[in-house]
């Protein structure tokens, strides 16, 4: 019985020493005015969400690959940073990871930041277009985008260029395995 307690104590000590994985939470500063947010943002545009998909991208500030939602917009008006008819903006999955809850078919005013890709979240002033009247009054009407980009041309982010090579390696490995098994059965 004493031995069991020592094992339990040892396991408890190991758990305490491990400490767990590092986690990140969403912590927003108080919201800025539309003009301040406009100045801080790298892109400001309005558009309709045409598609949302999961993707993996490297987060520079934490050095890890994390899953994000990629949101494809059909751009109606642009004020800053975007001139394409379709753009992809990345965000988290939910508010806990600062993700903005975009919905397909709805229109938004988007404040985005350049982090090798366009990124936004709940800490920006991104909002449904129906709630953006004060912002649009502060910026003016904006202009329509002039560079045509089809939504299908945008990178999905899910395709791995090494995938075909991985399939070939698996097939070669399987054939080699069958060859070895056949040789052993012939002996």
Topology:
Layout: H1 2-18, H2 34-40, E1 43-59, E2 64-80, E3 86-91, E4 107-114, E5 118-119, E6 127-128, H3 133-139, H4 163-186
Parallel strand pairs: 3-5
Antiparallel strand pairs: 1-2, 1-4, 2-3, 4-5, 4-6
Query: Strand-and-helix sequence, N→C?
Result: HHEEEEEEHH
Which CATH-level-2 architecture of the domain at 34-153? Beta Barrel
Average pLDDT reading = 79
Record field, number of beta strands: 6
End-to-end Cα distance, whole Å, is 53 Å
Instruction: Give the CATH topology of the domain at 34-153.
Output: OB fold (Dihydrolipoamide Acetyltransferase, E2P)
Q: How much strand content do the residues show?
A: 25-35%
Number of helices: 4
Helix content: 25-40%
Query: Which CATH C-level class of the domain at 34-153 is it?
Result: Mainly Beta
**Which term fits the overall shape?**
elongated
**Radius of gyration, rounded?**
25 Å
Largest sheet composition: 5 strands, mixed, barrel
pLDDT below 50 for ≥5 consecutive residues: which ranges? 156-161
Strand order of the largest sheet: 1-2-3-5-4
Category from helices, strands and their pairing: alpha+beta
């Amino acid at each position: 019985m004493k031995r069991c307690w020592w094992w339990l104590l040892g396991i408890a000590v190991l758990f305490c020493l491990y400490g767990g994985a590092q986690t990140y939470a969403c912590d927003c500063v108080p919201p800025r005015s539309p003009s301040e947010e406009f100045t801080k943002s790298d892109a400001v545009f309005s558009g309709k969400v045409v598609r949302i998909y999961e993707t993996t991208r490297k987060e520079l500030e934490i050095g890890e690959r994390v899953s994000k939602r990629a949101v494809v917009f059909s751009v109606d008006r642009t004020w800053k940073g975007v001139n394409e008819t379709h753009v992809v903006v990345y965000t988290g999955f939910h508010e806990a990871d600062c993700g903005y809850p975009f919905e397909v078919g709805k229109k938004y005013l988007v404040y985005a930041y350049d982090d090798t890709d366009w990124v936004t979240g709940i800490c920006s002033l991104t909002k449904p277009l129906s709630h953006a009247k004060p912002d649009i009054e502060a910026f003016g009407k904006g202009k329509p985008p002039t560079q045509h980009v089809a939504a299908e041309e945008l990178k999905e982010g899910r395709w791995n260029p090494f995938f075909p090579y991985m399939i070939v390696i698996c097939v070669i490995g399987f054939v080699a395995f069958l060859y070895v098994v056949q040789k052993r059965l012939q002996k």
